[in-house]
Structures are given as C-alpha cells and as structure tokens.
Design goal:
Layout: H1 3-16, H2 29-36, H3 40-52, E1 57-59, E2 63-65, E3 86-87, H4 91-98, E4 107-108, H5 122-132, H6 149-159, E5 172-174, H7 176-188, E6 194-199, H8 203-211, E7 215-222, E8 226-227, H9 229-238, E9 241-246, H10 260-272, E10 277-280, E11 305-310, E12 322-325, H11 330-340, H12 346-357, H13 361-386, E13 392-393, E14 401-405, H14 412-419, E15 424-425, E16 427-428, E17 441-445, H15 452-470
Parallel strand pairs: 4-15, 6-7, 6-9, 9-10, 10-11
Antiparallel strand pairs: 1-2, 3-7, 5-12, 7-8, 11-12, 13-14, 14-17, 16-17
C-alpha cells in the first residue's frame, strides 16, 4: 500500500473515531511529515484523498479542518413483518425504468449506473482496443463455459479481499451479475418454490423470481443492520423456504452493511434449516470502510452459499461481465448457464483480466469510493434542503444509491410521471417489493460528481413533491 493512502486512512480513522472533532484544525503538512517520516508531497496527497471524500476541508492560509458535521435525516422505517409468500408483480414499472438509454436527455436519478467518466478506466479502454486488433482473433473465439482462465484467476485473487479462498476452477464467469443471480436461483429452486428476500430488495432479483414462477417472502429489514434474523427464523419454521436471497454488503437500495456477527448468525440459521443462501455482493467492493466487509461466503464451510458479483457497478455496466462462486451447486450452475447463454463473451473477459492483472482495479476503486462518499453527503444535503420536512433517508455505507421515504400516503409512481416531462427520472419504491410496498419511497443515484445540473434535478424532485402534497 502506498504511503499517502496509508496516511489518509490513519487520519480518516482518527476523524471518524472523534479524535479530531468537527471544526478542529488538523496537523499541518510539515508536522505530519515529521511525525510519520514521509515527504511533504505524501502528506499533501493524503489530504487530497480526504478532501475528495469530504472528511477534511482546506481553508486558505489556515490549513486543513474537520468540516462541521451534517445533520442527518431520520432513517427509513423498518418494513413490516410478512404475512405470506406472494407472486411478484411490478414488471411494467420496472420496464419503464430500464428501457431508457443512458444517452436519453432525461437525467436518470433512478438507474443503477456507476460513473464511467473516470480517467482510471483508460487502461481498460486501451486493453479492449488492443485485444480487438490482435491478428490471431483470440477475442473472437468461444472460451470455456467456466470463463477464461486468466479472468477466473484474477477474480479468485479479488475474492480474497472479502475473506474468501475460492480456487479459480470453482468460479464461473457470467454475463453480468444478473445472469449469476438467475442461474443461482434456477440451480436451487423450482417453479412454485418460496424464496426469502430482504425488503426492499433489488428489482432484478424480484423479476427473476417472477419469470421462473416462484414466490417471494419479504423479510423486515433494518436500514442499518439488514434483515431481521428473528423474522427469518419464524419464516423458516412456518414455510418450506428453498433459498435465502439478500445483498448484505452495501445493500441495494438501502446501502447498509450487515454487521459481521449477524452474517455469521444468518449462516448458522441456514445450516440449521439446510437452506442455501444467494449472496449478491455486486456493490461489496464499493464499501467506504477499509478493509472492505467480509462476505457471508467467507464463513461458509459446507458450500451452501452461492456468491454472485460483477464488474458492472465497480467498473462499467456495458462490459457485461460477472461471476458466481456456487459452492456445492457448481455442476448445476454450469448446466443452467449452458442452456441460458452458453459461454460469456471472450473479449471483455480478456480485457478485464489485463486491467486487474496490471494493477489498475484498486486505484480505480479508491477513486470511486472517495467520489461516491462525497456525493452521498452532497445528495443528502440536497434532500434535506429541497424535500418536505419529515422526509427520511438512508445512510449508505457504500455504493451510490440513496433510499428516501416520504409521507405514508404519497405516490412516487405518480411523482415519476410528473417528473418525466421535466427531464428527470427517479426509481419508484414499489419496484423494490414483490407486492408493491414502498409506494411512498424512491431511490436516487448519486454516482456522478455533484454539479449544478444534478442539483437542479434534485430540486425539481423536491419541488414536484411539495406541489403534489399541496394539491
């Protein structure tokens, strides 16, 4: 680890732990240089990282200070205890969200798009170009149904960061995380089966259950700690649940990281009732904390956890490359992948293997995590400024999604229809529920660097909410 990164993390921990309080002046560049035995430029680079993350603010001729602590809005309420498993609905509303191109003139606050404008992605673009020009056409051949060996080796190394020791031969490369989720569900369940899910939950997983004719049992979910283990245990006692599906690290849409002790307890429950776990970790590498959180898979000793992820949120969605580490379900997953898409496209796999192997992934992640954390704070400030009093909002611990809760009788589907003529789109909360709950909630994306254009879009959302409340 480079010295300036290590120093930035040390100072960041001191600020987060209250060693330096809001308004305090931080040590000078020269003082830190002497204390840590590093160069002045190393300290300046460390301060730049902290400034990008919103942890410090420079003041001309005065040095660096801890900024005033922002007043946080109240957290969203915990979802209600489920009554029974239900068929998944909301497909038409999901289609309205995903059918728009990123190049449309609409400002898409609702889509799960990362920022792809970072200069740290240039090495990937060069690799894609270089591979496409190879005379041997190696990027044009089918590769193994497992995926290219070079990429599986890099993914196996990457998974070490989440505590997993998975050999490359136990990893299957997929066409994005969506296919990983799909083959995981088909490998463990049959039509009519019941799947326990966190609630609110990723609409893509919900619609996969709908497509396969399965039912969802929504579990109460705390916006800081994740699903209720008590409710899960009661559900396992009452219903023949065939799979537990959840996003425990940097959850979409709530943004929480389930505490490690709760991850262990959840795995213990799954072992007791002999139920597999589908762990969606697509945002895990975007946790603001260091080191990144351990996965449930890292505690798995009997192969019951199917770990799914991709590079769609950390690098770029258009490359459509993900993976699954399915444990004991490997043979079944390979069969399900074969009958769905066959081998994943070779060229983007080779380019990503180069991108990771040449050490470009980690610097890119550091830059994006810092940007997203700063953008989160700005987005929450805008919500507090422009939305009605009493608005609740999540406190994401990673990724780039904010969950907002409005008055109980508010209709965000109607809000979305009112915003589209103004050139703004949000994600209505009902698409994150199998039964259409959370109609008074919405999800907003804050991946882009804050700009006056985005602020104007958020202001338009808030003003339209106020107009609708006044009708």
């Amino acid at each position: 680890m480079k010295l300036y990164i290590k120093l930035a993390e040390t100072l960041g921990e001191r600020i987060e732990q209250g060693y330096y309080r809001p308004g305090d002046r931080l040590p000078s560049v020269r003082a830190l240089s002497q204390e840590h035995g590093v160069s002045l430029s190393t300290v300046q680079q460390a301060y730049r990282i902290l400034e990008d993350g919103g942890l410090v603010e420079p003041r001309p001729k005065s040095g660096y200070f801890v900024p005033p602590r922002r007043q946080a809005p109240a957290l969203p309420a915990v979802s209600r205890t489920p009554q029974r498993p239900v068929d998944v609905s909301q497909w038409n509303d999901v289609l309205d969200l995903v059918k728009r191109s990123a190049r449309d003139s609409v400002i898409q606050l609702g889509r799960g798009m990362p920022d792809i404008s970072s200069p740290t992605l240039k090495p990937l673009l060069r690799s894609l170009g270089r591979i496409s020009r190879r005379q041997d056409g190696s990027g044009l051949y089918y590769d193994s149904i497992h995926g290219t060996e070079a990429l599986r080796e890099q993914v196996a190394r990457l998974m070490l960061d989440s505590g997993c020791q998975v050999p490359p031969d136990d990893i299957v490369i997929t066409t994005g995380c969506h296919e990983a989720l799909s083959v995981a569900i088909r490998s463990t369940c049959e039509p009519g089966d019941i799947v326990a899910v966190d609630s609110p939950s990723f609409h893509g997983a919900m619609q996969t259950l709908k497509g396969f004719g399965m039912k969802a049992l929504e579990l109460p979910t705390d916006p800081l700690n994740g699903i209720s283990l008590e409710a899960l245990e009661m559900a396992l006692e009452q219903w023949p649940i065939k799979l537990i599906q959840l996003t425990p690290s940097c959850n979409n849409p709530l943004g929480y990281i389930m505490p490690e002790a709760r991850k262990r307890a959840l795995l213990t429950l799954a072992q007791r009732y002999d139920v597999p776990i589908l762990e969606d970790d697509v945002y895990g590498d975007l946790a603001y904390q260091y080191p990144r959180p351990r996965s449930i898979k890292s505690f798995d000793e009997d192969g019951r956890v199917l770990f799914c992820s991709s590079f769609s949120k950390t690098v770029a969605p258009g490359i459509r490359v993900g993976w699954i580490a399915p444990g004991r379900y490997l043979d079944r997953v390979l069969h399900m992948k074969y009958i769905s898409t066959g081998a994943t496209a070779t060229q983007p796999q080779l380019a990503l293997a180069e991108f990771l192997g040449q050490g470009h992934y980690e610097p890119h992640l550091r830059r994006m995590r810092s940007q997203y954390q700063h953008s989160r704070d700005q987005m929450i400030d805008w919500v507090m400024r422009y939305f009605p009093e009493g608005t609740r909002a999540s406190r994401p611990q990673g990724s780039f999604m904010l969950w907002v809760e409005l008055a109980e009788d508010f209709d965000t589907l109607r809000l979305n229809r009112a915003l589209l003529p103004k050139g703004v789109q949000i994600a209505a909360g009902s698409i994150f529920s199998a039964s259409g709950k959370y109609r008074n909630c919405l999800r907003m994306n804050y991946s882009a660097k804050p700009t006056p254009v985005i602020e104007a879009a958020v202001r338009a959302v808030g003003e339209t909410i106020r107009e609708m409340l006044g009708e």
